[in-house]
Amino acid sequence: MNARVLDGEIINSRLDDVRAYDGVRTRRILACIVDYVIIGLLTIPFAILVFLLGVLTLGLGWLLYGILVPAVAILYIWNTLGSARQATTGMRVMGIRLERLDGKPLDAPTAVIHSVLFWAGNVILTPLILLVTLFSDRKRTLHDLLLGTVVVRDDL
Known about the structure:
Oligomer: single chain
Number of domains: 1
Number of helices: 6
Strand content: 5-15%
Number of strands: 4
Structural class: mainly alpha
Radius of gyration: 18 Å
Distance between the termini: 11 Å
């Protein structure tokens, strides 16, 4: 990253380049679809384990089905978006990554909070999340604005 300090504020020239945001909205949507498919596939072996645990515990283990998909999704986000690559598998396929505006690397807890805000926002305000990208700088979504993050193309 080519970051410089100007009047006490970190300026990241890569994040200031308008080409970094070309096609990001579409790429984010497609990356989300890819990630949902991956999370669904990852859930299958864990569902089998929960089934076997339920048999061993006379049905008590089956209560884990209620949190199975969110738990798998959080582990997936923690290990992909919270890694040094700062991108989920779907984001890497689409050539985008999540970055913080202050230039610091994205940590795993921030990645998980970002995703939880995304899911909560989709449950409550589905159309608003994409509408915000039409009017915000750098095509940022509502949860990007709250956390000081931005999604940029990785190929620049």
